[in-house]
Amino acid sequence: VYGARKVWLTLNREGIEVARCTVERLMTKLGLSGTTRGKARRTTIADPATARPADLVQRRFGPPAPNRLWVADLTYVST
């Protein structure tokens, strides 16, 4: 779905020189609008009373040799 910015960029790329405000005005006049992005869904609400896991890496992500430090991040698993 194209909003005014993408329409304007496409028109200019195809050699039709037009101001972006003109594209916005015409789209509004014709009742055309791009879709708005939805709000990001918060998947985890952490309980402040629970204990946090130990930081075994101690924020040093540069290992001294290959295969000495492996890190994974399982922020969200869709179920």
From TrEMBL:
Residues 1-39 form the HTH-like domain. InterPro entries: HTH-like_dom (IPR025948), Transposase_IS3/IS150/IS904 (IPR050900). Pfam families: HTH_21. Coiled coil: none annotated. It comes from the Bacteria. PANTHER family: TRANSPOSASE INSF FOR INSERTION SEQUENCE IS3B-RELATED, TRANSPOSASE INSO FOR INSERTION SEQUENCE ELEMENT IS911B-RELATED. This is IS3 family transposase. It comes from Streptococcus pneumoniae.
